[in-house]
Amino acid sequence: MRQPLVAGNWKMNGSRAFAGELVTALREGVSALDRVEAVLCPSFVLLPLVAELVGGSTLQVGSQTLSEHDEGAYTGEVSGAMLLDFGCRYAIVGHSERREYYAETDRQIAAKFAAAQRHGLTPILCVGETLQQREREETESVIREQLEVVLAHVGVAAFQKAVVAYEPVWAIGTGKTATPEQAQAVHAFIRHVVAERDSEVAEQLRILYGGSMKAANAAGLLAKADIDGGLIGGASLKAEEFLSICRQAS
Length: 250
Ligand code: PEP
Description:
Elements: E1 5-9, H1 16-31, E2 37-41, H2 47-53, E3 60-63, H3 80-85, E4 90-93, H4 96-101, H5 106-118, E5 122-127, H6 131-135, H7 139-154, E6 163-166, H8 180-195, H9 199-204, E7 206-209, H10 215-222, E8 229-232, H11 239-249
Parallel strand pairs: 1-2, 1-8, 2-3, 3-4, 4-5, 5-6, 6-7
The structure holds phosphoenolpyruvate (PEP).
C-alpha cells in the first residue's frame, strides 16, 4: 500500500512572517491525519526557519532544487549535505520552471537526483510534456525520455527511495488541470516504464500529480488508482486549500 504524499512547492514566495503564519495554521490539522505525508518546500532562505517551525509536527521539509555537486567552488549553489543539515528530507528535481528558465537538462537532473540520494534526501523527480508536445501526441515519448535518462544514470533500484511527479507543463500555474482520466493514463504509463525494469519497484513508487491542483479538483484526481498524491504550487500558499488537499489524500 503506497502512503499518500502531498508536497507544497512555495516557489519564490513568502517571508518569515508568512512562513510563521502558514506553518502555524497547518501544524495541527496535518498532524491529525494519520495516512498522508505532507511536505513543505520553501525557498532556500526560508528553509531553516520552516524546519524549525514544523518541529514536533508530522510536517516534513523539502527543497525546490539542489546542486548536483557535493561541495566547492559553485557560487550560489546549495548542496544536498547542507539541506540535510538544515532539516530537509526531500528535494524537488527537474521542475519544469528549472528546465525552462535555467536550462536544466535531463542529464543534469539525473545528476541532481543522484546527489539528493547521496546525501540522504528523497528526490521528487518532475516530468511532464508541454502543450505543443501533447498536441503532437508526443506525451509518452517525452516522458519516457525524461525518465529513462534518470533510470540509466541511477539504476531502477534508486527509485525505491524516490518519488515521481507528473506535471503537465500546460497545467502549471495556468488554472488548467489535466482531467483525472488524462492524468491517470500518464501515471499508469510512468509506472509501466519503471515496471519494464523492475515491477516491484514500480508497484511501490509514489507518483504525484501536479498542475493547478486545488481543494475543488483534488478528489477526482486522488481517486485514480495510480495517483498517490499531489505536488501543489499556488494552492499550497493557502492553509485551508493545502489542508483540504491533505485531508482528501488521507
Ligand atoms: C508546481 O509548480 O509544481 C505546480 C503544480 O504549480 P500549480 O499548482 O500552481 O499549478
